[in-house]
Write the structure tokens for this entry.
Amino acid sequence: MLEKMIFGRYIPGDSIVHRIDARAKLIFVFLFIAIVFLANSWITYGLLILFTLFIVRLSGIRFYFIVMGLKPVLFLLIFTFLLHTFFTKEGTVLLDLGFTEIYTGGVIQGVFIAIRFFVLVVMTTILTLTTTPISITDALELLMNPLKKIKMPVHELALMMSISLRFIPTLMDETDKIMKAQMARGSDMTTGPFKERLKAVVPLLIPLFVSAFKRAEDLATAMEVRGYKGGEGRTRFRQLDWKMRDTGAIIVLLGLAVALVLLRS
Amino acid sequence: MDITLRQVSYAYAAGTPFEKRALHEVDLTIPTGSYQAIIGHTGSGKSTVLQHLNAILKPTAGTVTIGEKVLEAGVKPKELKSVRSRVGIVFQFPEHQLFEETVEKDIMFGPMNFGVPEEEARRRAHELVGLLGLPEGTLQKSPFDLSGGQMRRVAIAGVLAMDPDVLVLDEPTAGLDPRGRKEIMNLFARLHEEKNLTTILVTHSMEDAARYADRVAIMHSGRCVVEGTPQEVFAQDELLRDFRLELPQSVKLQREFETITGQAFPVLYLTEETLAEAIASHFEQESEGTR
């Protein structure tokens, strides 16, 4: 039932995008998010779209997944587009609806914001589709390492993140199972009036919480008996290795930034 | 209530790149009042078949007929509650579905969802607690304070309280101790007789299939490959080995006995008791012959 979720899913592959160091990918995406705001004209936004499509092409990910990634934010995309279309009063009047007027500037602004949204979502989707959750957490831990100086529990944060990522599929399976069991007992949260569906959530949530707490306890015990005691002096099984191509990726992105600065009006 | 599967195929996540076909053109007829065992290796599609038996999964191709209700691939069924109230499923590790404050309320949950009046539901809860060998005081306890075995019994009571015509059991005794296992299986056999239930048992235990069922179906890679009486099915040693299944203990012993004595019994003995008797009378005859 929940098997169509695409969020946080990793699609194995062997493209250059897959092979780039997870740290480089994280820096890349963060910088990209900042760079997007440099664009302010048709030509710069066009460049952003081209660049994004180029990355999609490089990753070898089927377009289907990108579309699935966009689906949940489609509503937001349309909403912001409409908001800008109706409330930006610039340029000449395009359409007179009587109660309000639509200006050319509004439509253009709406399209720009939609493009901005689109490239951001596609870029982050590509990041999660081509990087295993575990290497994302590894990369985050390494990138945040300097924060240890100011007593940030970096290792613990990373551990928390990887544990929660690890248990998402487990909890999904569990939800599916309990949902089916309660459906067989006549409680159905997929059909019927809203109030009834809301009531049907309780028989789902309570068993889910009970088993989640039990799992947490079991996991804590399992870690304890294997002598886990935090990140101090711990070596890594998965080594991250920064190569020339990782530096190259960042340079390409900086190139894009320079181009945007030069081309923006 | 007859249940018929006609050319049923099912794929998980159908229409996405994650599509995984779990069933291929399964044909299976379960007549009213029969005790059908479904056996097969892990991942053979047993549990997927089971979820079609009360329309929790709908076939991606083919038809499932449950009593009067016909579920056809691609046709959205209108109303499923009537089917679900008549087919009770005890899922694997059913104790995970407990959620109410008291055992009594949890047992009453199923029947009340299907419109049974509160008093009647309460009466059934009291009756079932006794039937499943739980102490009377259990009813007012929280289900989370019980032991694992007791939780299992409460969960089973919660399904039986719906008073279904068809009882579907998915490995109901997994993780129980041998005695609890026997008690529960005997209880199901008794209910099957007394209430004239149609029982469908999904199991890894060849012994349970041999002892209790009157029809056995073998699933392999999403197909129903063999169907027949336990006598017919367990006589095919070679075939079972191909599907990576064991013979029931008693049949194994019978085969060994036959190789040693060089004398074949006319029938397969599907339980230890009947085999023991047959062997005993075999020796009696032999000693009479030598006298």
In short: The longest helix of chain A spans residues 154-184. Chain A has a mean pLDDT of 87.
